[in-house]
Amino acid sequence: MAITKIQTRALVAAVTDDITANTAKTGITSGQASAITANTAKVTNSTSASDLTSGTLPDAAFPSTLPAASGANLTALPAANITGTLPAISGANLTGIDAATVSSSAPSSPSAGDMWFDTTSGITSMKVWSGSIWESLSNKFNATGGTKTTSGSYTIHTFTSSGTFTPSTDGTVDYLVVAGGASGGSLYGGGGGAGGFRTAAGFAVTAEAITITVGAGGASATGDISGNNGGNSVFSSITSLGGGGGGHVNNDSAVAGGSGGGAGGASTGAYFGGAGTAGQGNNGGTNGDATSPYGGGGGGGAGAVGANRIGSQSGAGGAGAANSYSGSSVMYAGGGGSTWTGNAPTSVYGVGGSGGGGAGSITENAIGIAGTANTGGGGGGAYTTTAGSGAGGSGIVIIRYLT
Prior knowledge:
Blueprint: H1 5-26, H2 30-45, E1 101-103, E2 115-118, E3 125-129, E4 134-136, E5 143-144, E6 147-151, E7 154-159, E8 163-167, E9 171-178, E10 197-205, E11 210-213, E12 233-235, E13 238-240, E14 321-323, E15 330-332, E16 396-402
Parallel strand pairs: 1-2
Antiparallel strand pairs: 2-3, 3-4, 5-8, 6-7, 7-16, 8-11, 9-10, 9-16, 11-12, 12-13, 14-15
């Protein structure tokens, strides 16, 4: 059925009368009613964070317990918006944080970046594993004294004469202490004993001046006498004893020392070499017996006893010992050889031991060969009273630590 214009006017008038009547009752206009309807839809369904752009939400609008929120969604928060006192955070919730090992022993099988608090007495230092060594994080160890060089991961202090080693802080070092070698005996002389040889790693030192003593080699001997002992070398509480002098003819006078001197030649009986010191060196060799030719024994070395005289062969010096604290492997503390006996051409003099040992006189009037300086090698024995035996080689002290 068609609606006439008259009917349309009547409907509009009726709706207008209803709106007017409702407005009169509530005081809300039609525009305000539309806004209320839209906001009601937002609250009833869901609220977008983009709608919370200003103002303050009252506490009453929140439940007593908020639902869990993922930390992944908390991004780009301005620090100025975080006020008040934050609640305590349980350490159990902090994952991925590696704790340091607290021990006097280094952790086994460390990975790069692992930390270790070393509680060793005199050290107490935090260290980190670099992938090859434990490096101190604080109070890094350093020192002065001697000739200072580096090799690989180590700083090296070499003392070829007496001096002072002064650490900057408490720490540990590796050391080599070699005493002076002895001279050989004069007149059918035995070889001089090598200087005492001591070495160790991880030796604790404190931040104070430490006196270093480097032992001199024993002086050449002339006349019918035994060789002269070498001087002691000292680092902190570590003392290496000087080598023992070589013996002389028909006299049981080879001398004890770091390594002992070799016995002199004799026509009156068999004689023993001087005694070496345990942990530092070895005994000198014997003269064998009283038969001609009258050769003597070799001086003891850090690595082996001096050789005994056998027949026309005089005793060779005992071998020394190797050490690489200088940055390369070096032999030290070889014993001196005994003299030629004069029964040419069958007589054979004793050679010096590896590690700086000097050979005995190679002919009747030749001087014995000196031990090598700063190796602690023993000197060679002399055949006559006038030529002179070989002097002992001076000692050495080497200290190193991780750079």
